[in-house]
Amino acid sequence: MVPKQIVLLLSGLPATGKSEFARYLARDHGFAHYDLECYPRGWPHPELIETWSTDRAAFVARLRQKHDRVVLDWGFPVRCLSWLKELQAQNVQLIWFNGDVNRARKNFVQRGGSDVANFDTQVRQIQQAGYPDSLKCLVVPALSAGGDFLDRHQIESIVFH
User: Tell me, which fold does domain 6-159 have in CATH?
Assistant: First the structure.
């Protein structure tokens, strides 16, 4: 069952279905979806960008004033670990989308829009940092080596067990 009040952060390997699941939560469960990498288009309240940039605790407090349910969609760079920790200190729940790296890379190339070198760099940094094992988070095995995505209802049952 989806809680009445919750703030989630979906992160993880690129091209493993984070944004798709965030859109599902928004569409079917009334979550406010903030695509943190797509400002201002991906922000229901773009005026919160300054707060996001300067004070994550205040940002989460403002989100909670405006919405009962929030999903943040952010494949955070490894260098932003301190920001992640600030969010977690505000009881934002980190959900890590994991999967087969080779299949995720193929998906990344197929969807286009960014140089595959960006994918390779981000994955290398994730692996070097020991993510997700070194993070306090729930891991969702979202993408198989065969290219199958976990069904959104299966992901929902893992996240909201």
Answer: Rossmann fold (3.40.50)
